[in-house]
């Protein structure tokens, strides 16, 4: 049977707008309230999420602006044009490693969460392998098809997330939001770092902008997409604090999941709402993992041009699985996630700022 191919691999600016929150909203949002609540008091963490969101919006605009100045050019091509061929290859490889590690981390965390809440008798390695095989199948298709999956899944994810928050309003306790402005500077700084790391993944714009039909619209659309993620994170955090309180939210492993478990639908005709929440959230994590994996393939394919896409996929899939399953316990997974966050944000920021400044100083333009 022949594999179905879309007529072209060109995408619209709406699809890139949806791709940004699709890769950002992954496993991080499940534990994000815990990391923000721990160093802050009451609802003060909301300010750090907003501040982190503003900083990430600026970086998103910078990444999109850089990539949109070189329409229909791969990242390695315009990075080489701005600097040199060796540096272009090095930058591309560093970003490929970021995508590889992000895919591995997402695979491991979804395996742990699913084992804890859904498949308590199934080894996490089996769950992770099953999830990764589905991701491999998706990445094996066209990139346009991957973006169409984002367009289909993201509205469902958004609606269910808002529904969870609406259905828990009856559990709100206003006292949990007080007092305000009591967190010290060190607490805000620690929470700010965690909030910024929650928005990891915007480096995809360096690669996917080459596929956009109207690249001049990418900076604006990308910022709109990131704003959706920031808004959703703020709502989830406020809801978790209002329902659980700062102390409890800071000690729950996955506060967002526990929030879904507390949903009570009037009439009692639908119990265990968290099962539906898991199904929907697996879509979100699938989107993140698939794009992280695909960007890795995209980047390495531009370096090793003779390698076919499928060869790279089958080579990288076992590497992703082994890396993801290497941590032996929860502290190990947390440490791995911290490393991925630091590495990903540092590499994306440094490479983008460096290329943007050098391109301006040298007056480099698209060829």
What is this structure, in a nutshell?
Mean pLDDT is 91; it is low at 1-7. Helices cover 72% and strands 0% of the residues. The chain is an all-alpha fold.
Outline the fold blueprint.
Elements: H1 13-24, H2 28-37, H3 45-68, H4 75-82, H5 85-117, H6 124-139, H7 143-167, H8 185-197, H9 205-208, H10 218-244, H11 246-249, H12 255-261, H13 273-303, H14 309-325, H15 330-362
Helix pairs in contact: 1-7, 1-10, 2-8, 2-10, 3-8, 3-10, 3-15, 4-5, 5-6, 5-13, 5-14, 5-15, 6-13, 6-14, 7-10, 7-13, 12-13, 13-14
Structural write-up:
- The protein has 367 residues and is an all-alpha fold.
- It has a single domain, classed as Amino acid/polyamine transporter I (Up-down Bundle).
- The chain is 72% helix and 0% strand.
- The protein is built from 15 helices and no strands.
- Helix 6 packs antiparallel against helix 14.
- The N terminus is likely disordered.
- Integer-rounded radius of gyration: 20 Å
| Structural class assignment | mainly alpha
CATH hierarchy: architecture: Up-down Bundle
Biggest sheet details: none
Question: Average pLDDT, to the nearest integer?
Answer: 91
Q: Could you give the count of β-strands?
A: 0
Q: Please report the first level of CATH classification, the CATH class.
A: Mainly Alpha
Bulk shape: globular
Helix and strand run: HHHHHHHHHHHHHHH
The oligomeric state of the chains shown is single chain
Helix count equals: 15
Helix content: over 70%
Give the percentage of residues in beta strands: under 5%
Outline the low-pLDDT stretches: 1-7
């Amino acid at each position: 049977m022949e594999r179905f191919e879309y007529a072209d691999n060109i995408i619209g600016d709406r699809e890139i707008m949806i791709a940004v929150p699709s890769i950002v909203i992954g496993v991080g949002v499940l534990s994000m309230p815990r990391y923000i609540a721990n160093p802050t008091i009451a609802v003060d963490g909301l300010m750090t999420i907003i501040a982190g969101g503003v900083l990430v919006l600026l970086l998103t605009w910078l990444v999109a602006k850089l990539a949109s100045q070189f329409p229909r050019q791969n990242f390695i091509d315009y990075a080489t044009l701005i600097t040199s061929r060796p540096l272009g290859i090095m930058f591309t490889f560093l970003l490929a490693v970021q995508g590889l590690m992000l895919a591995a981390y997402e695979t491991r965390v979804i395996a742990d969460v699913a084992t804890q809440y859904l498949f308590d008798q199934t080894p996490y390695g089996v769950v992770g392998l099953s999830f990764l095989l589905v991701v491999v199948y998706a990445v094996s298709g066209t990139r346009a098809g991957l973006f169409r999956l984002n367009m289909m899944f993201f509205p469902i994810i958004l609606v269910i997330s808002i529904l969870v928050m609406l259905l828990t309003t009856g559990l709100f306790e206003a006292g949990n939001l007080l007092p305000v402005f009591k967190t010290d500077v060190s607490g805000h700084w620690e929470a700010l770092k965690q909030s910024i790391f929650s928005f990891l993944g915007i480096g995809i714009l360096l690669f996917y902008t080459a596929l956009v039909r109207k690249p001049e619209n990418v900076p604006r659309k990308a910022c709109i997409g990131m704003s959706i993620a920031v808004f959703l994170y703020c709502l989830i955090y406020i809801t978790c604090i209002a329902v659980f309180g700062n102390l409890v939210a800071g000690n729950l492993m996955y506060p967002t999941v526990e929030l879904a478990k507390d949903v009570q639908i009037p009439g009692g005709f639908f119990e265990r709402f968290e099962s539906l929440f898991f199904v929907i959230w697996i879509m979100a994590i699938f989107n993140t993992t698939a794009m992280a994996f695909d960007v890795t393939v995209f980047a390495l394919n531009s370096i090793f041009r003779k390698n076919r896409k499928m060869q790279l996929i089958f080579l990288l899939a076992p590497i992703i699985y082994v890396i993801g399953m290497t941590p032996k316990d929860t502290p190990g997974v947390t440490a791995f996630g911290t490393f991925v966050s630091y590495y990903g944000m540092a590499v994306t920021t440094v490479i983008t700022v460096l290329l943007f400044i050098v391109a301006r100083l040298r007056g480099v333009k698209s060829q």
